[in-house]
Design brief:
Blueprint: H1 3-19, H2 35-44, H3 56-64, H4 67-106
Helix pairs in contact: 3-4
Length: 107
């Protein structure tokens, strides 16, 4: 590689650096829930305004308003009902076992 080729490469590199335009910095208008906003913020290196922290109960109440949250809440309710039924069955079977044990002990 000779001096002329090297200088042409350097000139092209310098021209490319001078043609570089900074990304426009803008405030994100949507919340952190929007994936597109996060991607745009990462691309343009802007900071997305975060909303204030909320307690867990409030966050869960908001989550339950969404489709995924609604289905999860229904699943939780169904599981609670099923758990109560199973606990009642276990209690009944335990009482039967204890009664049988008493009968065995008396003999």
């Amino acid at each position: 590689m000779n001096k002329i080729e090297l200088s042409k490469e350097k000139e092209a590199e310098i021209a490319e650096a001078q043609a570089f335009v900074e990304y426009a910095k803008s405030e994100a208008t949507e919340g952190l829930d929007d994936e597109q906003t996060l991607l745009d913020a990462a691309r343009h290196k802007t900071k997305v305004k975060k909303r204030k922290a909320i307690d867990k109960q409030t966050a869960f109440m908001e989550f339950k308003q969404e489709d995924q949250g609604k289905s999860l809440e229904e699943s939780i309710r169904d599981n609670r009902v099923e758990l109560k039924a199973i606990k009642a069955a276990v209690k009944e079977l335990t009482e039967e076992c204890n009664a049988a044990k008493r009968n065995i002990d008396t003999v």
